Structures are given as structure tokens and as C-alpha cells.
Known about the structure:
The complex is a heterodimer of chains A (214) and B (55). Chain A has 214 residues and is an alpha+beta fold.
Amino acid sequence: MRVPLTAPRLYPAKSVDPESVCHFLDTHKRRSRCLLMPWGTYYGLSIAAIALTKDDGITAKGDCRRGDAAVSVNAAGYLATACWISTDRAVEGTMVKTVGTAMLSHFLSKNILQICHNQYNPKSNCAHFIGHALGIKVGDTNCYNVAPAGIPKPGLGFTIRVDDLSTFGAQTRACGRTSQQRFRTVCSSFQFRAMYPVLRFGWGETTRNMWESM
Amino acid sequence: MGRDDTKHVGIYVGGAVWHYSNSMRKVVAMSVSQMHNHYSGLDPTTWLFYGTFGP
């Protein structure tokens, strides 16, 4: 059974001045309004927005059209703001093709201490990284409420546990267990959907401690 | 899925698996084959899961 999304939003949904949140002021400031997205409900679109970085060539005037979205990634690497302008399916289709790698490249080769503003660095950071990368805050524990005392914290924490991600995945889209032989096939068959950047996750669980070597 | 620590998770997107390498202490991207080969010695007690996030 599909459970309605309950992910907390990081920012309230409200109309904001585009110049206060957008990276792409030259193009976005001419737009009529910019909505700060309620994270959780629209996180797919927010993620898609990250594809619209300067590296993706969406900087020239005229490249930014209705349906474009933008986010800013702060120095710590987590999503700080997200904005989205209207809807244009054709443009969204283009964005989806470039989402993911453009967004994740912000984190490539970074240590978790360069990603986590709470400076939380446990033995395993696989789920912790994903929490930051995708802005997921589900479960009882996060990197804010378990971070060491004495470190200034901005009050924002992300998921740190694999099982919480698993539960969240089961709540939002298909989720299941597969055999070792089929795992590669399942991964290889993943494709982006036409409209939304459906991110695919793979995770494993074993009675042995071999996963720590990853 | 239990709460023990013997789990690993990554993001599959754009033909690569992006995950945090605890041994290298940094974010890395590797192919599905590389990821799969890393666990070539999985025994029957190992479970593999997949799932998707999205609207």
C-alpha cells in the first residue's frame, strides 16, 4: 500500500523574491514570481532543479523558460533553497535527462565532514550522504540530534540510517528484495521516467560485517 | 529491514552508483558491475534490496 508522503519540508511554501533564492539571477529575476517549494511534496522537482547549474549551460538569457527550476547548494553541500517557476513539460523532460549526475557531482570526492554541516561522522556514512544529497529527513534520528555536543549546529538534520531510507522508499515508490543474480539486471534496467527524476536506490543487508569495507 | 549496522546503500542514477565509501572516506561513483563485483562473495544470508524515490 502506498503511504502518502510525510517527509518534512525544510522551508515553508510561500512566495519569495527570486533574487533572494536563485542562483540564476540574470534569467530568473525577470520572472513574475518564484515559489519556494514545500520540500517533501515536490522534492523530485527540486532535485531536478539542480540540473540547472551553470555547468549545464542554463545561464544564457532565453535558456531559462517556464518550467525551469533552480536550487542553491550552500557551502556545506546541502540544499539550501529551491525554487521553481510554473510548468512546461517539454523543458522538464530535458531537465530529467541531466538530473542526478549534475547534482551528485557537487559531492564527488568529498568527505562527510565537508558535506555535513553538523559535523557528524559515524563509522558508516552511506545513508548519511544520501540524506544530505537528496535532502531527506525521515526517521527518529538524524545528523542534527545525534551530532556531538559543542559543535554549533544550525538545527537542520538529515537521515542517517539505511532502514529509514528503506522505509521512506517503500512509502514513496516501489521497493523490494531481490536475489544477487537479479540485482545487476534490476539496476541496469533502471530508466528515468519522462517527467520526474525518479532516483533509484539499491541497498543491502547482511549478517556479516563486510559492508563496512565499502 | 533491521537496525543493525551491516548495511550499505547507494544511489543509482545516470548509469552509475553513487555512494559514500567508508573505507576511502569520500563520495565515489562506480558502475553497477564494479559495485556488484564488490559483493561477489555474498552468501545466502545477504539480502539485496532495491527501491525508488520519487513523486
